[in-house]
């Protein structure tokens, strides 16, 4: 059985994979320093986030701010950061949660904006 943790939730925030990696890496480092090792679940989750993050954590935070200024919902921003779409068709699918229609010019601008942040 899993051990229950007695923690208080202070804040709830949607995180992209790179942001989650940064926070989990910090926690894993503290646990390793204190206990010498971490659980297999934490280790595998950290590895997954490392492998499937499409950009560096600092880049994702900067891109989140840029996309926020484009008046996109947090859910859409997270999906864009996690997927790093490269075509208009890939990007348009991610606009499903928006309550407005994103025109082609704006979508193209978003693609051009995210390109430098995404890993090749």
Provide the low-confidence segments as ranges: none
Main sheet makeup: none
Form type: elongated
Task: Give the terminus-to-terminus CA distance.
Answer: 41 Å
Average of pLDDT: 92
Helix/strand order = HHHHHH
Share in helix = 55-70%
Any idea how many domains?
Answer: 2
**How many strand elements?**
0
Residue share in β-strands = under 5%
CATH architecture of the largest domain: Orthogonal Bundle
CATH class of the largest domain: Mainly Alpha
Radius of gyration: 17 Å
CATH topology-level name of the largest domain: DNA polymerase, domain 1
Number of helices: 6
Structural class by SSE content:
mainly alpha
Detailed description of the structure:
- By secondary structure, the chain is mainly alpha-helical.
- The protein has 2 domains: 17-52, no CATH class; 57-114, DNA polymerase, domain 1 (Orthogonal Bundle).
- The chain has 6 helices and no strands.
- Helix 1 packs antiparallel against helix 2 (40-52) and helix 1 runs antiparallel to helix 3.
- The N and C termini lie far apart (41 Å).
Summarize the structure.
It catalyses: RNA(n) + a ribonucleoside 5'-triphosphate = RNA(n+1) + diphosphate. The chain has 120 residues and is mostly helical. 60% of the residues lie in helices and 0% in strands.
How are the SSEs ordered, and which strands pair?
Elements: H1 17-35, H2 40-52, H3 57-68, H4 74-83, H5 88-94, H6 104-114
What are the defining features of this structure?
0% strand, 120 residues, mainly alpha, 2 domains
